[in-house]
Design brief:
5 helices
Length: 212
């Protein structure tokens, strides 16, 4: 294994082992120990994380041996892809959080997507969600488990479906709405620019929905 590969494996192992956000010192990335461990967020959001504690991604789904679940792996062109976007807003965090986590309202801002609670009450850690994206019966199902619930600032999920695997987090505060994901995507690096544009457009739709 190359040095880069050993470094990635070490970060992944630490990430999986760190299951309690409260154990992470302020200003550090869980699973890496410093801001250098997650440069994708630092680079995209810049000074935002110099003034505020950075959002932490929850542990990714793990297989029987504690390995990160990566779907079909690189042999099928599927690779871990990290994405993060932010938009500025002067809306109260409580209002944004209310609309963000009103799962039946997903179609108002998440393109061609309906969401419902399938276990729990949808208002806390351990609740399970199912979101279908598509038209008619043509589309895909994204199943999720809520892993962090800290209104009105943070909600995080683990994506547990067959097609969508990984972790995601929304964070509200400091006049910004932030959305970050680590997903296993086909042709990950190639789809990243389009995915970022879509995520930013989606956040703006969310802000508009919360403004109504």
């Amino acid at each position: 294994m190359s040095a880069a590969g050993r470094s990635r494996s070490s970060i992944a192992a630490k990430w999986l082992a760190s299951s309690h956000p409260s154990a992470t010192p302020p200003g550090c990335w869980r699973g890496a120990g410093s801001l250098e461990g997650m440069p994708f967020l630092v680079g995209m959001l810049g000074a935002e994380f110099e003034a505020h504690e950075p959002p932490e991604l929850p542990s990714a789904p793990a297989g029987p041996a504690g390995r990160l679940v990566r779907g079909g792996g690189r042999r099928l062109g599927i690779m871990p892809t990290r994405l993060a976007v932010a938009v500025e807003t002067d809306l109260p965090p409580a209002r944004l959080f209310e609309v963000l986590t009103d799962w039946p309202r997903h179609p108002e801002w998440m393109f061609l997507t309906t969401a419902r609670v399938v276990a729990g009450d949808g208002r806390g850690v351990g609740s399970e969600l199912a979101a279908f994206t598509g038209v008619g019966r043509l589309g895909f199902l994204d199943t999720m488990t809520v892993t962090r619930w800290e209104p009105p600032a943070v909600v995080a999920v683990a994506h547990t479906g067959r097609l969508v695997r990984g972790v995601g987090i929304f964070r509200i505060g400091g006049g910004r709405l932030i959305w970050a994901e680590e997903l296993s995507l086909p042709l990950g690096s190639l789809v990243r620019p389009a995915a970022r544009l879509f995520m930013r457009w989606t956040l703006r739709r969310l802000v508009r929905a919360a403004s109504g």
